Amino acid sequence: MGAFLGVILSVFIGIVFLCKVFGFSIFKEKPSGLPNGSMWHFPFLGETLAYLKPHQSNSLGFFLQDHCSRYGNVFKSHLFGCPTVVSCDIELNTFILQNEETLFRSSYPKPVHDILGKLSMMLVSGDLHKKLRSVALSFINASKSSPEFLSYVDTLSLSFIHSWRAHTTRLEFFKEAKKLTFYLMLKNLMSIEPDDPLAENILEEFLTFMKGFVSLPVYIPGNAYSKAVKARRRILSTLKDAIKKREKIMGNVSNVKGDFLDELLQKDCLNDEEKVSVLLDLLFAGYETTSGLMALVVYFLAQAPSALQKLREEHQSLRERKKEGEPLNWEDYKKMEFTSHVISEALRCGNLVKFVHRKALKDVQFKEYTIPAGWQVLPIILATHLDPNLHKSPLEFNPWRWTDPATNRKVTPFGGGVRICPGAEIGKLETAFFLHHFVLNFRWKTKEEDGPMSCPYLDFKGGLVLQMEQIN
Q1: What are the CA-CA distances from residue 118 to residues 123, 205, 289 (Å)?
Q2: Helix axis angle, 197-213 relative to 224-249, nearest 10°?
Q3: pLDDT tens per residue, range 39-67
């Protein structure tokens, strides 16, 4: 009995200690004016496990459905070790995103800091965030219309698609998309070609890194999270070595690559750690977000034959106006109107970013709600994307809804305010160029029993398998 009481006492002391570390006291009085909701479920964890329960990205999931039906689109909870206001309301979400640095600030849990690094643009605030973002944005804006970059995106996309013709087995599409987008970023940022052994080495490290990024953020030796933290260290070491090598040859004009690394090394406003962090941020964002977008577009198009046909017609018309083998350019991209609608609709339905973490810097009054200073705030982006009050038949993949300009004001796939994703346009451009060659080289059907295997199959690991057939 004494041993049992000792265990109970140890657990209680541990809970109090964790609450202390994460800045939350189980004995604090609850402020008035809060939204309705539930503040307690399990000590420290609160309702976090229920909130993080996996669900399809084109659905709210049970937690949000249940809480919104019980408490409304704005409710209080206890998540990630903090008292939290959860918002599934588009007006409040917009208010939060547009008042960054004045009323709210980025505030991700400590494990996210451990895996992304303290200088990640997603985590830093104030003048440091402005400085790092400005460096990244200037290069991205110059790259997206650069003939050299656009030609490389066109060439590498076509090369990947042609490589699939020889396959008679399943290809995991998301993995293929990750390779494509990662190699594009390596070339644009550091002039590393896909056949360079260093490219494959960095890609493998990133695969390990991402497995941990979406895992339970608890450091246990050998688990996905701990492997990811170690992979990040190795990636940083590789990037630092690349920077040192480039610095040694910078004096010779013939060695100038004209890539982001060259530009980065000339930024005296950044120290060495900041330069590495910006480089890592761009590799991470360009690799993960764009590959996810490509997978979403192909996934939804497979289930929307009318949209696929319309998309193919747009790209056939575009190709007919170009010479044989002529690469796509910036003017071609601006003419891809329906392609833009398809990409935007895939972002709305697929929700690459489901929510963001913010913290109230002061007591905030919004309509009838009070958000106390220091409380965590979670704007749920996917909730507004799937809101039937904002979108007719929200679960339907319907690119034609984007012919109404008002749709743009109801969808925020890349966030908003001063933290809106700087690489949004370049990710959409890469996806559009890839789609151009994809829809002109392949057609597909979704039932394996429709005949013997031809080349190749695209496997989405979610139950959808596309049998592709070459278009001669």
Answers
A1: 7, 20, 21
A2: 140
A3: 765 666 788 888 988 888 888 999 999 99
